[in-house]
Amino acid sequence: MKYFYFMLVLSLWMPFALLAQEESEFTRQITVEESSQYLPDYLDGIYIGMPLADFENVKDTLMLDISNNASDMWFGATEEVNQDGIDEVVYKFDKEEEGVNTERPLYQINIKFLEGDYEEEYISEKFRNYNWDSYTKDFDNTDNEEWILKTNKDYLLIVKKTADTVQIIATMAGTEWDPGR
User: Fold this and answer.
1) Is residue 10 included in any domain, yes or no?
2) Which is more confidently placed, 102 or 162?
């Protein structure tokens, strides 16, 4: 009988004990300034939300191919990499819109990988092997996966994996991914 009561108390107590544990033991959220949590090592010093002026201090923009979008919502910079398994990186910045995002933040990074297992290794290292506080969508096609991750900011990160490209997108206010648009 003692065993029965012990198991009953244990089964009632265990869920509360698990809930009382620190959140970081079970789930993590992205700290966007700590880009090593979600970006390849090659992009050290770059992070989502980074103001354009800070980006220009890290990357030589004269060596990047700058492109403007016809919608006047964003402009992009493409970097040919061809190292560390990365073919090219596209950086998308918000254009100033009536006082929203006056620092013109980096809100999307598209990473195109070279052929091989580079993309798979990156995805496994940064997203699959961690218990992120996230929503994960697996598609019927195994080349496509998606994660929606909580951050320490007022926006989420969407990570989309396709055959050879990973997009890291912030649902930042004032951008094309603004959920309020």
Assistant:
1) no
2) 162
Sheet order of strands, 165-170 included? 65-68, 74-83, 86-94, 106-113, 165-170, 157-161, 145-149, 134-138
CA distance 76 to 66: 6
DSSP per position, 130-159:
S-BSEEEEE-SSTT-EEEEE-BSSSS-EEE
Beta bridge partners of 165: 112
Residue 148 clears pLDDT 50, i.e. is over it: yes
Q: What is the pLDDT of residue 86?
A: 97
Task: Report helix, strand or coil for 96.
Answer: coil
Within a domain: 1:
no
35 domain-assigned: yes
Q: Which domain holds residue 134?
A: 22-170
CA nearest neighbour of 67 among 54, 76, 79: 76
- How many domains are contained in the chain? 1
Close Cβ partners of 45 (under 8 Å, ≥ 6 residues apart): 35, 58
pTM of full prediction above 0.90: no
Give the chain's mean pLDDT: 80
